[in-house]
Amino acid sequence: MLSERLLTTAVRLCADRFMNIKPFDEASIPGPTPGKPYMLYAHIPFCERLCPYCSFNRFPYAKDRAASYMKSLKQEMLMLKDLGYDFESMYIGGGTPTIVIDELCELIDLAKDTFSIKEVSCETNPNHLITPMLDKLQGRVDRLSVGVQSFDNGLLKQMDRYDKYGSGEQILELIRNASPYFKSLNVDMIFNFPAQTEEILRRDLEMVIESGTSQTTFYPLMASPAVERSLAATVGKVDYNRERRFYEIISDTLAGGDNPPFIHGSAWTFNKAADAMIDEYIVDYEEYPAIGSGGMTYLGSTQYVNTFSLREYDQRIAAGKTSATGKAIFSKHNQMRYRFMMQLFGLRLDKKQWREDFGCSVEAGVPVEYAFMKAAGAFAIDDAEQITLTPKGRYLMVVMMRQFFIGVNNLRDQARASLPEDERELLFGAGCAMK
């Protein structure tokens, strides 16, 4: 549809401006603002093998490399304590954080001893849903997010996941067994993969419902230009023309009708409970320090990007310096754009809070974005207190976030391209999709 194409182009241009990263070589990031809640993001970049569609900062696992990294990660976390930070929530992403299960548990225990953390979210892969690991995570992790992507064996083979994680039927059984260990178990899925058909998608939806999971997130394929070229050369070109139809099937199956199995938690997350933790921490926490190689911090009007080099990361932390090596400063207008996108992605924009924070109305702050979404029929409620979304509005937010994250993934590709030669070879030799 025309509105989707216009939005794709507009967000791509905005993302390029958001990602205008300049060098940063100060000893530390700024300290906290008194009274403001923060979440702590920790990045653990190691995987057994690297998936061809993934743009996150990740490296093939090696015991010595991981041991040194986890030591630095704990030290960097304590540096935030010294700056005066406290956290009520922690999100651990990757990579596959559970690949270093003992060190991961030590990191969580240290975080809970150091800060006022009430909830911990962590990512993993299906092959780690085994009793010894689940026993260690139980009581430490409140919400476990499992990267499934699809239950279809053909797609799993194309994604190089079948040999690593088993068949769709085996993964389904692992999820069923793991669910009781956690307050929330999230199943991460991908839709609009080149070889995916409507029949495959519908079967994936059936298996998600059968799994008994308390939450599922259906991400549109968010391939950076480098990854998209690689996919086109191997499994086919990404077809964005069918994305809306796929999203409508997902929403209608999971959250449609009189007695749906799930409800919308965000534009692409579906929960069984209304008060569930959602998959995108950036909705609940607008500001968050990030520790670890490749982490991205957002504080005030500034985004900080941590070094992607494992060697430089260890060296900077050993020297008592922040791992951030780049930054981008957002104008007030871009801060408002960011708020507009993130709150609507979370399904509700608080107009009163907006006026308190920015000193103007939403309509005056982002007139073009507001008028576009209004004209497109995106708003279900638009009164003095809030904006909520229609089904069409939810899809437009999926488009907006897809393009925003593609911009972030493009930044990650550029960062990997500038890694030292031996670290680039480490990635290429492990099957990295970059060219």
Short description:
Helices cover 46% and strands 18% of the residues.
Protein described:
The chain is an alpha/beta fold and 435 residues long. The protein starts with a helix and ends in a 6-residue tail after the last helix. The relative contact order is 0.15.
Rounded to the nearest angstrom, the distance between the terminal CA atoms is 32 Å
**How much helix, percentage-wise, in residues?**
40-55%
Based on DSSP secondary structure assignment, what is the total number of beta strands?
18
Alpha carbon gyration radius? 21 Å
Q: Count of helical segments? A: 18
Secondary-structure-based class equals alpha/beta
Overall pLDDT score: 89
Strand content: 15-25%
State the low-pLDDT regions, or none: 428-435
Give the overall silhouette. globular
Q: Report the major sheet.
A: 9 strands, mixed
Strand order of the largest sheet: 10-11-9-8-7-6-5-2-12
Annotate the secondary structure layout.
Blueprint: H1 2-18, E1 22-23, E2 39-44, E3 46-47, E4 59-60, H2 63-82, E5 89-94, H3 101-114, E6 119-124, H4 131-137, E7 143-149, H5 153-158, H6 162-165, H7 168-178, E8 184-191, H8 198-211, E9 215-220, H9 225-234, H10 243-255, E10 263-264, E11 269-271, H11 281-284, E12 290-291, E13 296-299, E14 302-306, H12 310-318, E15 324-329, H13 332-345, E16 348-350, H14 351-358, H15 362-365, H16 367-375, E17 379-382, E18 386-389, H17 391-417, H18 421-429
Parallel strand pairs: 2-5, 2-12, 3-4, 5-6, 6-7, 7-8, 8-9
Antiparallel strand pairs: 1-15, 9-11, 10-11, 13-14, 14-15, 16-18, 17-18
Helix pairs in contact: 1-17, 2-3, 2-12, 7-8, 8-10, 13-17
